[in-house]
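Deliverable D5.2: sample structural annotation.
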Amino acid sequence: MIRPLKNSGYTLLEALIFIVISSFIFISAFAMFNGRQGQVQYRQSVRELDSKIQTVINDVSTGFFPNTEFSCSLGDFGDTQLNIEPISSNQQGTREECVFVGKAVSYDNTQQDQLAIHAIAAANPPLGSARSILDNHEDVQLTAIDILKNSYTTAWGLEITRIVISSDPSDDLSSEPINYFAYLSDIGNNSNTSSSLESGQQAVNLYTSDSNFADFPNGLRQVSPDEAIYLCLDIEVVNQKAVIVLGADGRQLSTSINQDAEQEYGVVCEWD
């Protein structure tokens, strides 16, 4: 007697169970991967922003001057501004009237993924004189070189929700929103026999202002040793907040990152 062969295939119910389980595993794996990818993007975007600020600090500390050609001249007697003008490619730039003193970083809260970086020039001091940006920023004729303005866009949708200066981030009453910050060096002595700046005379400091950058340098003041600047950051891909701190503990050229800052800096950043 020949026995009939058993049907080794799956029943419809078994196939449906297999599909449901496979789908659940796929969705779980995708969610886990997407969450890890979001975390990587979040941390990378914060580090890139911090690196950009450190590049600004380094450019000012080393006296880096962008090589775009322009002319720099003093105005007529009584004029309080340097004249900065672009030149054509077949002309030679003349910059003996000005010296690079730093960079400013401005922020517009209507474009929370954008920062603008401005090169700052000042009038070259007379021979044998020295000028302090802190004491004489109007006298040195600080001027933003508009043709050297650069924009920076944060990565992965990172948003700068607020920039504030504070002496106590746990107390909102000590916090003041600002529109830009700047790293500026004092102008050192010119020697009596040369128009070149003497090395070792420049000290770079951190400055800030609550005025619009269009009014630079109005309202410019140096960040005091007990203050720091806080860049409050948010990103939609993960439910975390970050802060980049500038000038903490009196170290005006330092930056530090807190990648999970909601509890520590929730007051000063005004996160919901």
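Annotation notes: The chain has one domain: 15-269. Residues 191-200 have pLDDT under 50 and may be disordered.
The annotation will be released with the project's public dataset once the embargo ends.
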